[in-house]
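Appendix B, example 12.
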Amino acid sequence: MTDQDNAAQDAGAKGFVQHRELLFAVVYNMLGSVVDTEDVLQETWLSWAGVDRDRIENPRAYLVRIAVNKALAQQTALQRRRETYVGQWLPEPVVTGEPDPLSRADSSSMALLVVLESLSPAERAVFVLHEAFGYLHTEIADMLGRSPEAVRQLAHRAREHVHARRPRYRVDARLQQQVTERFVAAALGGDLEALLDLLAPDVKLWTDGGGKGPATSPHPVCGRDAVAALLVSVAAGAAEGFAIRYRRVNGDPSALLFAGDAPFAVLVLDIAPGGREVQGVYSVTNPDKLARIAL
């Protein structure tokens, strides 16, 4: 390889790294899986490395288009895996910093990603690109090889569906942190009255163990009394000595439980508008989904 080839390769790598954060955020919002997101980014890099980059006027737009279409192609394999998944499936939690490059306008929150699972792959791609990352319908049409009118229709259906199930709002992070700490203390302490005081009447509990970690049932548990009673029952039989760390997960203040040095569970709460009641509890205990989380 000549010096000129090496220089071109270095320039190509630099161009990809420059946009990698954006690519990861877009693809993860489409797939909800870090493993599959990394696979898509690897395929995107291979496509990028093999083209004549001198002919590409807008590298950012080119890379996003390639990544989005490879993510759509990945959806088929991902759906097949989920059909045989044991129990409830939740997105893979991502521990994020502050400022948080992953979460934009609530786009990566655990609660919203669960809602996005009910969209078609095309609807989800359009929703993510337009609502979370601000791409115009004409730009998305060019990425997906569809007409602008078709993209507008997809965007309208997706937006109506998502906003019906999750109206837009944002809870103050400090308040969410306080509610999370109170919830963890009540749940692990088996304090039924404190839990009932925190939970909304229509609260739902999702637990994802993937057949490898603790999980409550194959379906979400609904209702304040049922959720509180189940949490108290689980706490009574749980081993003592969990280390608790409070960090941002998918942009939200959350609780991470460790057994020794190993991650045991990630708890993410969805706080109702007003910030006083918990309307959703998401517990991920599948060790495969916790492998990237460190004490």
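The mean pLDDT is 90. The first strand starts at residue 95 and ends at 96.
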